[in-house]
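Quick start: what a row looks like.
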Amino acid sequence: MRPLTQADLIPYADYERQREEFRSRIIALKQRRRISVGPLITLVFENRETLKFQTQEMIRVERIFDPAKVQEELDVYNALLPSGGELSATLLIEITDEARMQHWLDTFMGLDHGQKVAIVAGNERVFGEFEGGHSHETKISAVHFVRFRPTASMKAAFADLRVAGGDHGPSWRL
């Protein structure tokens, strides 16, 4: 996937005027790219448009106008773009119950280490590779970035709507 450049971004004032329409379009796009893995884990598969939106929002919220700082934001989000043959996702731990939050966060400690999250298609399984730096021994982040490198036959299963969701179609495992 081609990296985002400053030329791809909408200038600040124009973005402010277009934001609601752009935001609505991206929300609809993300709904199609969102998969729940149980009641507390969601994967949102990223692409160039979703990451462009994230970049635009960061520039907006932090009021970044310096081209060097804009490039720093682009570099952060370009690192999340999937490379050829891979899927890139944001994994969200979605805990809304304040009283049980610590319990659930403790339960998910280590989620981003080892072979814990996988895509399964037929008899094949591919484990996700987590980006480091989002948790440590005593604290886990609620947001992680994970990459999957499905095999050719797994990709064919994803594209075959006759098997999607069936016994041999793709599924997600924790």
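That is the whole record. The radius of gyration is 18 Å. Helices lie at 12-32, 48-62, 67-78, 101-107, 152-159.
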